[in-house]
């Protein structure tokens, strides 16, 4: 039998004061992806299967390059925030911290690699 009060049991488990901000960030990135993914598909589709020179010429134009860059950045940030939420919900302790660090590193590295590849095509 525990003689702890309800307040003592709940201490340290309360609001981190960032849930609403995180939620709205996920909503904004979702809406951004609702716009960006179809744009990306319609800009990437016509060049699919073309020669390397045609792809370079196509992504040297600003609109397809900007759409691809925005899609890469927004999608990886959305992934990072969603994975971090799942990790925070289902893991504890040191494992939680290590997983969050790993997901952040993977997301930023993948976004940087995608942007590097796009810049290499565009220039």
UniProtKB/TrEMBL annotation:
MF annotations from Gene Ontology: metal ion binding
Principal place of residence: membrane
Assigned keywords, A-Z: Heme, Iron, Membrane, Metal-binding, Transmembrane, Transmembrane helix
One GO CC term on file: membrane
Keyword Acyltransferase set for record: no
Requisite cofactors: heme
Subcellular locations according to the entry: Membrane
Transmembrane segments annotated in the record for this chain: 31-52, 58-77, 98-122
SUPFAM superfamilies, per the entry: Fumarate reductase respiratory complex transmembrane subunits (SSF81343)
Function, as annotated: Membrane-anchoring subunit of succinate dehydrogenase (SDH).
Listed name of the protein: Succinate dehydrogenase / fumarate reductase membrane anchor subunit
Species name: Palleronia aestuarii
């Amino acid at each position: 039998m525990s003689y702890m009060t309800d307040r003592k049991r709940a201490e340290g488990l309360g609001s981190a004061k960032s849930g609403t901000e995180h939620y709205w960030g996920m909503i904004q990135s979702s809406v951004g992806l609702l716009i960006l993914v179809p744009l990306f598909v319609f800009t990437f589709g016509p060049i699919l299967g073309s020669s390397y020179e045609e792809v370079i010429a196509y992504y040297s134009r600003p609109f397809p390059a900007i759409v691809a860059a925005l899609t890469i950045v927004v999608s990886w940030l959305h992934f990072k925030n969603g994975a971090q939420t799942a990790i925070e919900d289902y893991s504890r302790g040191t494992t939680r911290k290590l997983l969050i660090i790993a997901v952040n590193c993977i997301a930023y590295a993948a976004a940087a690699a995608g942007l590097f590849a796009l810049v290499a095509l565009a220039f």
